[in-house]
Design brief:
93 residues, globular, binds iron/sulfur cluster
């Protein structure tokens, strides 16, 4: 979700109730119907906002990932975080 700025009010997620972006999460595999609906709204966000939004969310640890943000589900972001950590460890080794 965008930070509380005047541009945040222009994002597609600002036009929906907050719980729309926190649907029941898929336990594994494909996103739930609620997640897919939120992903469709996210997909209409301007590219720059979407990337910025995703990277901001990825600064949080995996256990704090909830809801659909930056065109990803929480499960997808946890996976990105794991991949980045693994890549970072491989670079150090
Ligand atoms: S990418 Fe999605 S969650 Fe992020 S600001 Fe845009 S609509 Fe909102």
């Amino acid at each position: 979700m965008p930070e509380n700025t005047s541009s945040a009010a222009l994002t597609p997620c600002a036009q929906h109730p907050l719980n729309f972006f926190f649907p029941i999460e898929a336990r594994s595999g494909q996103p739930t119907a609620g997640e897919r609906a939120a992903l469709r709204v996210c997909a209409t966000c301007p590219i720059a906002d979407r990337r910025e939004c995703l990277e901001r969310e990825l600064r949080l640890p995996a256990y704090r990932q909830y809801g659909v943000v930056g065109c990803t589900t929480a499960s997808q972001r946890r996976s990105i975080i794991r991949s980045r950590k693994a890549a970072s460890k491989a670079e150090v080794a």
